[in-house]
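Question:
Write out your own:
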Amino acid sequence: MTNQIAVWFSCGAASAVAAKMTIEKYGDTHNVRILNNPVAEEDADNRRFLLDVQDWLGYEIESVVNKKYPTSSIVDVFTARSFMSSPKGAPCTFELKKKARQNWEKDNHVDYNVLGFTAEEEMRHKRFLLTERDNLLPVLIDAGITKAMCFDIVRAAGIRLPDVYSRGFPNANCIGCVKATSPTYWNLVRKEYPDVFAARAEQSRQIGARLVRVKGIRIFLDELKETDKGRPLKTDDFECGLFCEEKQ
């Protein structure tokens, strides 16, 4: 079918609002499909949020998975690749999101893509146009919608935001995101999800990945002190969309 728009929903507030706005603006003239790349390591409440958003949109949210990794687990990706992260991104995003999208596109024609880039992220939008796809509809940017506004819109719709936000995390990515280097972030993971922190520390030590940076020096997670701190976390510090990069 021509005039097809693929909206990539990441279980965050911004992509939820982007999906809603796309349906309202283009639903009568285009075939809009809402797509999600599930990740096993996301907080369990993300699934509740997905179902709530699905009801709000009135559209099915389809699951898009890389068949090479049927578990959709970042741990499995790290094991297979013996690699966890670099300043240019992480293999989990490439395998579970970017590769999954590319495989899906082989069987599904797409005229336009929509991501949850907000008004503060115009530079990320421009980089995506240069490095990934030039058929991106910046629905949130064009409307001047910020991340804070997305939170308000979702709440106004009667939808409770994913639990990870209330725990202090800057986005609804999977827990223990290896693109984060902030001691503030990793100590928050240790506090809120101690089992995840321990598992990520063990695997990163086995692979030799120094995931955290303290005073400009990379160290292993098991070397991180509970008193180590970085700057406060911001919502755009690191994302897990169809492309990713280390930002702190």
Remarks:
- Residues 243-248 have pLDDT under 50 and may be disordered.
